Structure prediction request, 401 residues.
Amino acid sequence: MKPRFFVFLLAFLSLAAKTYCAWRTLGSTDVGIFSIFAKSIHEDGLIAVYQGTQYFNHTPLVGWFLDAIYSLSGGNIRVFAFLLRLPAIFADMGAVLTLLCLREKTGRPAWWALALFAASPVAFMVSGYHGNVDSVMAMFVLMAAAACAGESAILSGLAFGLSCNIKIVPLLLAPVFVFHWWKRGRLVQFGGASALCILAGWGFPLVTIPAVFLKDVIGYGSVWGIWGIPYFLRITGHPAFAGIAVFEPTRAESAVMLGLKLIIIPSVIVIAWLRRALAPINLFQTLALVWAIFFVFAPGFGAQYLVWLAPCFLVASESWYAALTLASSIALFVFYNTISGSMPWTMGFNVLPTASRWTPWLVLPWGMLAAFLIYQVYQMGRAQISDADAAQTQRDLPAPS
Prediction:
């Protein structure tokens, strides 16, 4: 059996399994929350929902999508839950097809790693069960990076703009793409395509309710206390960091979140600048490094976020991708199994009351990302030392007579 056909077969079987799971289950708490938002948007309109609650922190495109599937479902929660997960399921297939095209051009990633990606347990749990749009965003980020390898600035910009219309977080990656195309003299094409795409999606709330949109959507910080540094601070038992904060962190928690953002953003800009001239295929390693910085110092977290970085890690380093997939699969299985009341999963709505049982397992993928980040910093340090030694050797050579 040819490797390409085997990967495609795995991807198709995975799509079928996810579709079956989505049809037979309700998913996580996000499905219930989305159904409430969908009903409100359908009855009152998108702008009214933005103005009426700070909890709706999604892009307009997601809001309109919720309205559409609410209408199609006729308010039936099971049909709504199924329709909500379909884009993520097909996005995973789109990611596999994109990676197959990338391999045709570059020889990366390796077949065994691509097969693992096609059958990823992480993708199955997030796309087939959870109920959110994160996998769609991850697919468009992958397409934006793959377009860099194909030297198409406009396609890269369009894909990047679409990713920002699904989630806000791809803006963190913007310096990587901006400096990449600036170095190649094609920033206008990339910037124009991405800006037009983003403004087309964000324009309505930006014009009508800019303050609300910027505060609740652009400024959303996710859930404090379940991942990484916020988790470690919470389990110290200190009163200032004692709770899991979904929307209202304490003053101390807010200060730490701000501090973490002030570590992440400058680090991303520096990394993007230093690596701007590398070959297009190395853009994936830059993106993996940026994702690692974000996740190690993340001020907030959601379990479904672990699909964001998978495609970039896959192309950047197959071995690190495999290790991260193993760690993430274990952590996510414990999470979904706990909130769903053990197998077989039907609905996972029991999230916060069971947090003490599943949050420790998230240390596994966080630790793996921390190890990757440390290793990359070490490698960059060695490279700088080697370059300095080579330069010194060149200076020490006797001048030609």
